[in-house]
Amino acid sequence: MAPGDREVEENKMIVPENLEEMLSTLPKEKSWGAGGCFYKYQGFWYSSVWLLGTIWAQQCFKARETDFLLASSPKSGTTWMKALMIAIVNRKHHGSLSSSSHPLLIKNPHNCVPFLEVRDQEHMIGSNPITYLDSLPAASPRLLSTHIPYSSLPKSVLAGRIVYIARNPKDVFVSFWKFSEQFASKNNQKPQESPSISMEEAFELFCNGVSTNGPFWDHVLGYWKASTERPDEVLFVKYEDMKRDTMHHVKKLAEFMGHPFSSEEEREGVLQEVIELCSFENLSNLEVNKNGTFQVHVASQTGQNQLQVDNSAFFRRGEVGDSKNHLTPEMLERLDKITQEKLGTFGLEL
Ligand code: A3P
User: Residues with catalytic annotation?
Assistant: First the structure.
């Protein structure tokens, strides 16, 4: 079999042959922040790219007990948490956190911690996106990430440990809206692929649960409930808490990951160094994050396509409450009300 033929074979294994047919049977909505439209699958909305990746992961991904999975709704602080997890786990291998070979100084955090459902340039082997994850050595824990809702996770994932980062939906909405503008211009999306949509229209969709991997509130709730039922395996963290008391939450994260900071490390300032290395100011000013590009391979029935986004798009303001500068008081109030209605009864405030 010629190598090209094998690629086609691999694609056949992982891309449902009747993808178009399958998509045509799913509920559909106008999308914002992604090309094409959103499809509802297992109760959540996806662009076709993320949906396909989710189905791949459900069918092919084999978790290991030693895995650490970072889960999040997009724009909730995924990049920051990836950086912290890498810095915590790697702090003993790199002599000094400021050593020029430290992965975070030369790579974007998304190139250090791969997603389950899409593959970036550095983590692609052949055309099967799962091959890279399977090739990682069994001896060291894998750091992985996902936007897949808890109820749709590949079943084997439930054997490993999960960290979830949640953020206030007002800031999530604004962050995603700004990100999607950059994404569309970078990928030259044609008007028919990415119909122009006003922020007000996108807001209406978001409030009605239509957003990437939304409904936002159901996404958060799935992981929140899991964290209350299985606290040793699922750690639930809020972006706002991380900003307010970074030291406390980074220590907690390190303990959860089985890499607690010793008193000696704390005395020597290692904890502070980790926090500074992963700070918005530091990461956003690194050459790789100012001028690099994050390229993602996505599979379709016709083979691999590439999407890209500037690494700088993952670092915008990094603040709590920026939504006040972009949304009207009525919009802010409406989101607060929905959040209270959906999450309040479960004892969760965002
Ligand atoms: P803003 O758009 O509000 O600035 P994600 O990583 O899930 O895509 O989320 C992106 C959001 O996290 C953006 O929010 C981004 O600026 C912020 N962010 C990225 N790196 C950060 C860091 N090191 N510390 C705090 N916030 C960070």
Answer: 147
